Amino acid sequence: MQSVPGKHNANKRFEDTAKYFLSNSQLRRNLHRATRTIREKRSNAVAELSDWQVLRKTGEAIKRHTMRHLDRYLCELETSVKNAGGHVHWARDAKEANSIIVDLVRKQKVREVIKMKSITTDEIGLNDALKAAGIQAIETDLAELIVQLSGDEPSHILAPSIHKNRAEIRELFRQTIGGKELSDEPEELAEAARQYLRKKFLETEVGISGVNFAVAETGTISIVESEGNGRMCTTLPRVLISVMGIEKILPKWKDLEVFMQLLPRSDAQRMNPYNSFFTGVTEQDGPEEFHLILLDNKRTNILTDTTARQTLHCIRCGACLNVCPVFKRTGGQAYHSVYSGPIGAILTPQLKGVDKQGPASLPFASTLCGACYEVCPVRINIPEVLVYLRGQVMKQRYDHQYSKQNINSEHIGLKVLAWAFMSRNRYEMAQKMARKSQKRYVRNGYIDHLPGPLKKWTQARDLQALPEQSFREWWRNQS
Amino acid sequence: MNEVKEEILQRIRGALKDVPADESIDEDIPRNYQQKGDLNPEENLQLFADRVRDYKAEVKMIKPDQIKSSVAEALKGQNVQKLVVPTDVPSDWLPDDVELLKDDPEPLTHNQLDGSDGVLTGCSLAIAQTGTIVLDGGKAQGRRALTLLPDYHLCIVFADQIVGIVPEAFQRLDEKIKQSGPPVTLISGPSATSDIELNRVEGVHGPRRLEVLVVNG
């Protein structure tokens, strides 16, 4: 078996590492069970709303409108947050955001901060940046804690430890936070995490959170969660720092009535246990100091592209992951990005660049079946963006990597195919030739090995053999 | 610092060249989703109770003159000795034989809250469709930490506080948010996680037991 593809393989291609994860049968069982459960629950939650499709359209319209006036709404948000007693910081990229946060934490002279689950802070590598400054970030979401304790990578944007079963979690907890007598009952495992983190919650002076939605009109930050660790992180510390990508903004308070239906139901619930909405600072209730970090980190590049712009509409519900035939089998770690599944396949290459071979492989990690588009609560046409990005990747390669002397076989193959498809005679001749030459490769009606440059095609797919007779031949025989 | 802000805004404006400069900011957004539920108050009441029960929380229907006795009974059932209450909780809700912890004269410390056995509050609103309790720091609700650290939350909901569906709740909060922007918390069942093999486990960090007394009449 290959070595474990880990953190430092961000530039590995999807197809190279997918194999490793596909051969892990425990992982596949965990994933199969988990994604099926969420899929069923989600469809029940969605079926309860007769206006679900209307809500999706409204959600899409709000997001599209917001992106078209993003500058205006960000300025409005800044003003509202400041008026409510908060501070606003702008960051062009990950480095800038991290250094702002490190400075803010240093000012408090603390060595530990508590953190609630936030993919944006994973995206910018905040924990490592804090560590380099001698500050430990304690993840308080159960799944994130599991991931952090095991030194692993998240496998799902909403359920990052979906790849681990209870026996594995028990072993981990026994070795780290819990005692030897710990059982593998989920209740007991959750209790162990509760006890370990409670003390931290009570004492830690700085909390760090992500943001689900930020309302420009009122300056209200919305946090959606289940366990209560989000409430702890945003209520108990003296100083709260929230990090948001600039696309997480909504114009009006009224928009929340749409998104607070779309997000929980897409996450397979009528309503998740806790939703917090806070506006700046409130006297004698919660943090005395609130900082909001507005992060660009390539989002403005995505905004430039009118086809790919819709990628920014994503509200990180995770529904597209659970329905994806590729994700269901490989899990999230094969994507080598904090954003996995279909949304990761379009977001990661845009954040990291289609010129890097790892991210550039992601738009191809799809069957284009369209299930992701069907479930997306804001109707992001992921297949459209996937195909578009494939084009971008090929164009990039053609422009930069292939000189005239080094034209790749795929390109030649497609040219030949186009030539053959242009005339009936040539097409039929090609069919006959192919039928003849396929004979030695056909096993039970399928071809699983092709020679030479065609090998690449059959490495990952079985090809159905050409039938003995084509439709045209059959038709001719009829008359 | 303003330099950074200006640069990001410039990037955005540069990215949005396809948007006509005079495009109206007044959104033209179709809002033909359901804005109001279609159940009557009695049905909403029943639905709310059912939905809260779905989250494995206790629900009891009571009459207005039963608040005090029902609170006492619930606290006894949970073996609550030290009870946190917001300073403005109506005194006629309170049982006689428990120790009350209040933010008065000094705010309770995190450790005091953590060491309590439970908290009793009212609420701002409730949503039938999702079995949700809405707190906004208003009357009989207290600051957020009060309903967060104790392990048991007993909440009194009056029938006329129950709205049908989610949009109605946000509409009711609209004015208050724009005026004073209080923190708002939506609570749907006890704290839970599904992170271990997707089994919903009630109780991680927030209160692990939630009990609701619905006052009707």
Strand order of the largest sheet of chain B: 1-12-7-4-2-3
Oligomeric state, counting identical vs distinct chains? heterodimer
Give the proportion of residues in helices of chain B: 25-40%
Largest sheet: number of strands, sense, barrel closure of chain A: 6 strands, parallel
The average pLDDT of chain A is 91
CATH top level of the largest domain in chain A? Alpha Beta
Derived structural class of chain A: alpha/beta
The CATH C-level name of chain B is: Alpha Beta
Distance between the termini of chain A: 57 Å
Number of strands of chain B: 12
Task: Describe the protein's architecture and organization.
With 479 residues, chain A is of the alpha/beta class. Chain A has three domains: 1-48 and 314-401, no CATH class; 63-297, Rossmann fold (3-Layer(aba) Sandwich); 421-478, no CATH class. Helix content of chain A is 51%, strand content 11%. In chain A, the strands form three sheets. In chain A, strands 1-10-7-4-2-3 form a six-stranded parallel beta sheet, with helices on both faces. In chain A, strand 11 and strand 12 form a beta hairpin. Chain B has helices at residues 2-15, 41-54, 67-77, 110-114, 166-179; strands at residues 58-62, 82-84, 99-101, 118-121, 125-127, 132-135, 152-158, 162-163, 184-187, 192-193, 201-202, 209-215.
